[in-house]
Amino acid sequence: MQLTKEQITITKWEADKNHCEINFKVKHLMITTITGRFNNYNFSAETEDNDFSSLKVIFTAETASLNTNNSNRDNHLKAEDFFNVEKYPELKFVSGRIEKKCDWLFDMHGDLTIRDITKPIKFELEFFGIAKDVDGNFKAGFRVEGKINRKDFGLSFSALNEDGIFLVGNEVDLHAEIQLIKIL
Fold it and tell me: 92: domain range?
C-alpha cells in the first residue's frame, strides 16, 4: 500500500551547533595540512523515516566566518584570491539523491555552490543513530566526508615557492561532525 502525500510525516531537524564541527583541510607546501572551519552556518534537514534514507539537507555558511587560527591566512582566504567574501558572502550545499549503502552508511549527492559556481558533489554520510538528551530532545549524529577541487569553484590562487612547490594544494577535504536536534 502506497502512502498518500497527506499520510507521510515529515520530521524536521536543525544543527545543534554546540555539538557540530564543519571543517576543511588543505595541503600547504604539499608537506603539511592546514585545517579551517566555518563558525557561522545554518544546517536544516528533513526526513520521512527514522533511518534517514530520505534525508534532505540545506547547509549554508557565511564565508567571512572562516577561521584557520591565523589572521593573516584568514584575511587572504577572505580576499579575492579565494572566497572574495565581499562579493560572495555565502556558500551553500543542497542535497539531492541519497544512496543507502547499509543501515548506517549513505552517499549523499547534491549541489555545492561557492563563488556563485555550482557543482555536483558526493558526501559519504555515516549515521550514528538517534538518542534522547537529558532535556528530552531527540538528537541524531553523523560524520560527513567529501572532497572538492578548489579550482572548480573559482578558488584559483596558484603560487609556487622558489623550489617550484605549490603553496596551496588543489584538493580540499571536507569533514563535519553533525548533531541534529529534532524540531518538529
Answer: 5-182
3-state class of 19 per DSSP? helix
Residue 3 has pLDDT above 50, yes or no: no
Helix ranges restricted to H, the chain = 71-78
- Cβ 180 vs Cβ 18: under 8 Å: no
Give the Å distances, CA to CA, from 94 to 9, 28, 62, 157: 21, 29, 15, 26
CB-CB contact of 134 with 107 (8 Å):
no
Paired with 25 in beta bridges are 35, 173
Taking the CA atoms of the chain, what radius of gyration do you get in angstroms?
18
**Domain count of the chain?**
1
**Do 55 and 106 meet the contact criterion of CB atoms below 8 Å apart?**
yes
Decide if 22 contacts 176 (C-beta within 8 A).
Answer: yes
- CA dihedral sign of residues 153, 37, 57, 44: negative
CA distance linking residue 38 with residue 70, whole number of Å? 14
- Do you know the residue count of the chain? 184
The cell for 168 is: 596551496
How many other C-beta atoms are found inside a 10 Å radius of the C-beta of residue 131?
11
CATH number at residue 20: 2.40.128.110
For residues 77-90, average pLDDT: 95
Q: Is the pLDDT of residue 124 over 50?
A: yes
CA neighbor of 180 nearest in space, from 135, 117, 127: 127
